[in-house]
Specification:
Blueprint: E1 9-12, H1 18-29, E2 33-37, H2 51-61, E3 66-69, H3 76-90, E4 95-97, H4 113-145, E5 151-156, H5 159-163, H6 169-188, E6 194-200, H7 206-209, H8 234-240, E7 252-256, E8 259-263, H9 281-292
Parallel strand pairs: 1-2, 1-4, 2-3, 4-5, 5-6, 6-7
Antiparallel strand pairs: 7-8
Organism: Thauera sinica
Domain Ketoreductase: 8-202
Pfam families: adh_short
Length: 304
């Protein structure tokens, strides 16, 4: 297979179903050798299975190279084994795509601490663990090879993490934190040549739509366009992983239907100053009303 990732080695987590399966197939189509990781459990994170092998068979049938990994991204030793699998199977690791995920949606008053912990474990601890394992590997190589390596990390955030969503206080927290992790690692790893970005995908998968999930990514014809299908964001992931995107780091980019959105958040919208004197709580309402929000706070006369 030839393409923009010719000769590169990628690890894609949660690549047995849905969006991650689309990423693994696209990276392989672009010439990468892929470690297809998937624990193989349910969308709520129960059980395990060998679906990663199925995706490898599809990649091999299309002329690519892939090995399965059935590890849990939340398990430290299993994550280290994933990175080692890439090195043992293909001699190196160049690209890490953190995609594995589960949901346990409930309004916060109905959510158990176990629902919070498990979602955080898969999305956040899982992403942090793989990033750490890859970072350690690339740092050692950079030291041995004179400074820089080829390294790409693509993490997965979501609209819930960027904008909030009812019933997802666990998931949104993990996905927002994934952005903080991405921004920090883009700074920490810049000097050794590793870029770190986050994508916000979309699609009707078993995770987002349950029984209304659409077909798996491999079941669409090569150029078939399904705006809510699971492979919509995969070309973006492949590009971010490519040589050409080496100047892109610390960015958050969503790919939903036929649109790509470069996201920018948390810039200073308006600033007020206390003129080097202590703030007074009783005066803040008026300052916010007149100088920040431009509205009159309830019960406040702006007349002074
Ligand atoms: N579907 C959407 O609209 C949407 C929107 C925004 C973000 N996302 C994100 O995209 C990613 C993929 O989700 P999807 O919609 O394709 O769901 P999916 O359930 O089809 O795929 C998720 C995969 O992750 C695997 N997985 C779960 N826990 C794991 C673990 N501990 N270790 C390894 N693998 C594990 C699952 O087995 C599954 O194959 C997730 O991170 C999700 O949060 C999805």
């Amino acid at each position: 297979m030839s393409g923009i990732l010719q000769g590169k080695v990628a690890l894609v987590t949660g690549a047995g179903h849905g969006i991650g399966r689309g990423h693994a197939l696209e990276l392989a189509k672009q010439g990468a050798k892929v470690v297809v990781n998937d624990l193989g459990g349910s969308a709520k994170g129960e059980g395990s299975g060998r679906v990663a092998e199925e995706v490898c068979e599809i990649i091999r049938a299309r002329g690519g190279e892939a090995v399965p990994d059935f590890g849990d991204v939340g398990d430290e030793a299993q994550v280290e084994a994933m990175v080692q699998r890439a090195i043992d199977s293909f001699g190196r690791l160049d690209i890490l795509v953190n995609n594995a995920g589960i949901v346990r949606d409930k309004a916060i008053w109905n959510m158990g601490a176990d629902d919070f912990d498990l979602v955080m474990r898969v999305h956040l601890r899982g992403t942090w663990l793989t990033c750490r394992a890859a970072a350690r590997y690339w740092r050692e190589r950079a030291k041995a090879e004179g400074g820089k390596v080829y390294g790409r990390i693509i993490n997965t955030t979501s609209g819930a993490g960027l904008l909030g969503n009812f019933g997802q206080s666990n998931y949104a927290t993990a996905k927002a934190a994934t952005v903080g992790l991405t921004l920090t690692l883009s700074v920490e790893l810049a000097s050794i040549g590793v870029t770190v970005n986050a994508v916000g995908p979309g699609g009707l998968t078993r995770l987002s739509a349950g029984d209304k999930a659409l077909k798996e990514a491999d079941q669409y014809a090569e150029d078939e366009w399904e705006p809510l299908g699971p492979k919509v964001s995969s070309p973006l992931v492949a590009w971010l992983a490519s040589e050409e995107a080496g100047y892109v780091s610390g960015q958050v980019i969503r790919a939903i239907r036929d649109k790509i959105y470069w996201m920018h958040g948390w810039t200073e919208a308006r600033t007020i100053s206390n003129g080097n004197k202590p703030w007074k709580a009783e005066e803040l309402g008026k300052r916010f009303g007149t100088e920040v929000f431009g509205v009159r706070a309830a019960g406040l006369s702006l007349g002074g």
